[in-house]
Amino acid sequence: MCGIVGYVGADTALPVLTTGLENLEYRGYDSAGVALADGDVEVYKTAGEVDALEATLPETAEAHRGVGHTRWSTHGPPTDTNAHPHTDCTGEVAVVHNGIIDNYDALRRDLVAEGHDFESDTDTEVVPHLIESYLEDGLAPQAAIEETVARLEGSFALVVTIAGVPELFAIRRDSPLVLGHGVEATYLASDVTAFLEHTREVTYLPDDHLAVLDGAETTVYHDGQPVALDRETLEWEADAAEKGGYEHYMRKEIHEQPQALRQTISGRIDVDAGTVELGLDLSEEYLRSLEEIQIVAAGTSNYAGRYAAKLLEELADVRTTVSIASEYAFTGGRDPWRTLVIAVTQSGETADTLSAVRDAKRAGARTIAVTNTLGSTVTREVEESLFIRAGPEIGVAATKTFASQVTTLALLAVAIGREREALSTDRAVDVLEAIRSVPGAVQQVLDREPQVIEVATRHADADAFFFIGRALGEPVALEGALKLKEISYDHAEGFAAGELKHGPLALVTDQTPVLAILTPGSRPEETLRNVKEVGAREAPVIGATTRPDDARYLQERLDVPDVDVLSPMVTNVYWQLFAYHVADAKGRPIDKPRNLAKSVTVE
Ligand code: F6R
To answer: Does residue 57 line the site of ligand 1, with CB under 6 A?
Structure first.
């Protein structure tokens, strides 16, 4: 989830690139760079924000062609060397990249064997070296890029500039790229925000299409043949453009979930073998000897942890407890070394969670962090870090990071289950197949947003909202209620469905919608009994279900794709949309709810 900007045209490229990078910086990046091409290719790059890059740039530069990049690290920490652009051995091929190249390890090994020197820890660096070797074989630049891309697996948006070649080349797969058509110039970016001040005439580049930019002339190729693509004229205000055309970051981030989840999973699973590779240094012997896993986390991350605990118990057969970070005190077994403490924190900066990690370390437990943020404080405190790769999240309410946390922890549960021989290959294959289909399942829910808008608007003035679920549906009920209360300021509560009759049922009236989860992994048959109980008290029941027959007990049925133990997590996307549209109907400041902050660095 990095940012790309490119330019070829009559003006000098440098000012277009620097303002483009500044426009993209709202996404919160950690290193930046540009390549300017005017005969030779000159690369400037540095760790830190765009300001830091600007301090290293010449005041003016003659080049009329160039690319810029702001990085959100996925492979390797945010250092000068890992910043993009990356170059080949000659320094003549410069490449910027968004996404993840799954097979980079194997490609890198082959290239090193052929004598290529690598400088960075990134997956991207294989691309300029591959292009270099095809150019050495005598291929023309376009053919060398096409051959290179044919060898890549994963998701990418790539922009390539080569010394002595007047064009700029761009190609994408599962990562956005948009062309902007100006006067005697073509712009290029991962997000139109980068060039909106120059032009609103755009072409969205489809997957596996190669754009060759030569000033005002741009030709797009597919399978080696030129193709004609439609242009669109954008009518966005600059502020809306920053949010990808959405009114709020939260809604943009809800809609980014399929892409975020693809990144979370990318290169980590072998479905046929039923195995997971997370790159953690935890030996089989250690995992087999584990007595207990303790998860520590706050807020939404705590609910992701509660979801994960159930998966760890079921798939990895290891006793797992979850603590609210501010309540944690180490209570490991006889041997702290056999207790693995997992801190779940998207920011990596939550003071309560850091304090829990320090407590666990003092007691002698092993610690790992599941986080979204490379270089964050938690990654320096723990022994091992596992990144959820959701990309930057700006809205205060956590959305896509919850989905990526749950999915990452599900991968961890499978990995540990396999090592401990608690999980059969067949069951692992089923779960990994479900994980692989999660991005598509989330997209199906997002496609039903109009139905959610209608339901949310209908119920926006309710007295209170109750969310119910069992098993994996219980933490999702708690998370659904948290999301709604924090952005709409309405009273919302989540309950284990079976607990309703032990007290909360007294609150239920025809003015309190009940949102129920009836999916695999959430004991739908039993929850249906509770749905009937609240229905008998005339509460409007909104049910998310995989089972069409449940409709007769529901005022509104929201269809959920069946993705095994991930079905409740996919249901949560409905609850996110519901919360968003209730809050929107009330005109709340959705991205910045009162009294809250994105990163809570006080205990
Ligand atoms: C709610 C929300 C918070 C955070 C909590 C922990 O939408 O975002 O509840 O989940 O403050 O934050 P991290 O995950 O950064 O430790």
So the answer is: no
